[in-house]
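Usage example:
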Amino acid sequence: MTLDRRALLGGMTGAALLAPYFALEKAMAQTAGSHTNHPPAAGSPMLLYPGFTALDLVGPHYFFACLFGAKVHLVTTQSDLAPVASDLGLAISPTVTLDNTPADLDVLFFPGGTQGTMDVMRSDRTMAWVKDHASRAKHITSVCTGSMILGKAGLLKGKRATSHWATFPVLEDFGAIPTNQRVVKDGNILTGAGVSAGLDFAIALTEQLRGRDYAEALVLQAEYAPEPPIVAGSMAAASAPVGNMMGQMFAPVADQFRALAKS
Amino acid sequence: MTLDRRALLGGMTGAALLAPYFALEKAMAQTAGSHTNHPPAAGSPMLLYPGFTALDLVGPHYFFACLFGAKVHLVTTQSDLAPVASDLGLAISPTVTLDNTPADLDVLFFPGGTQGTMDVMRSDRTMAWVKDHASRAKHITSVCTGSMILGKAGLLKGKRATSHWATFPVLEDFGAIPTNQRVVKDGNILTGAGVSAGLDFAIALTEQLRGRDYAEALVLQAEYAPEPPIVAGSMAAASAPVGNMMGQMFAPVADQFRALAKS
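Running the assembly step on the lines above writes:
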């Protein structure tokens, strides 16, 4: 704990913002009993596709990008490196195309969406990429309806998994065992529930990869001590009028995903 | 509740993803006693600057972009519309430059960061924009160290406000009244705590702008029922070794922000 942390931070510039994580890693390595005996991380691809839900991806990205040595690849399904627009119009720049994704990979991640996610599931080219990379990934992961992509790739057969509440029952159509938890682990598959569950998912994964102390440090850095001003984040907690309306609104989306399980 | 919701959704394409919100708005308008008697929203600028923390912005963006009629402007401090890189290397495309921001505005929002945030505070040009737009905004808001920008603009004098835990005490240097809550409202100024507090902040603002039912629907859609796998999101909750290490790590950052309060 008497590191060159201050020296690192003293010279910190915008580009050197990751210095704290290097210091953190060093400190962790010096802490007896910490879980830092891991090999250097391979690349971790996160899939960017038109119509993805940005928050599904950016929550986990915060944690993935803070893992010392991790190389996060933002992989676009588009043919070039143009920014990829989310369902709500937020465009994020990819770092690599499907064809140029490095072969060696660690964590494979899929955000959710609605029509955009279905377009991924309908694309033979993208689904071939999903299956190929899943066969080599150490961890196969998703948040929200990203689990529909895993299902379509045949990765959830007989596996416990979760999804956004709207598509949770559809998991069964892909042969999965719908498991009503915020984050569900089955072997090397880790799935998170809808949208904001990406934070809980990423913390669980960070703990799995780097141990409790490291994960705890990132939780503190993200000041993740949620206090929802409105408790309505599940059908059980929502008021009946709002729950009914939203249930009706999303029913056609579930039907469309279900149809893709049959095709 | 017998709307043309299914018709809207039946024809839903990637580009028409916002249809549910139109249906939601209509449904809300038909619900007696709901708070939908609001004027069409003006534009809501969110500031993008090199080194911003992406999660500070993308959490609130999810809610802002789901407000019927809202026009979210992603305003870049750079001279052109090139993607703006976050502190962790996630680049988001802006929609407008400082000079071309529409004059009429509703919610003005600032995400946090570290060195990038300090660069904003050192820029006469950007700070002139902040002061000008704050003088006309209906709501002046921030998440994380975004409150340092508000402080530098002189907007927090005598006001209750919050910030990331690392810079929370620095609020006093700007004449603010540091208030240890997840989300703090003082007049038309709404500040959120660090990073992940952007979700709680945005829900509080949504309720303020559109009423309880509307906010509840978005909370359910985002499945915001957090279950942190590790409870360590505040100094009080973190273990002593992690808390001490992180406190030391961020102390120089607080010092640098404090110096900017004097300059």
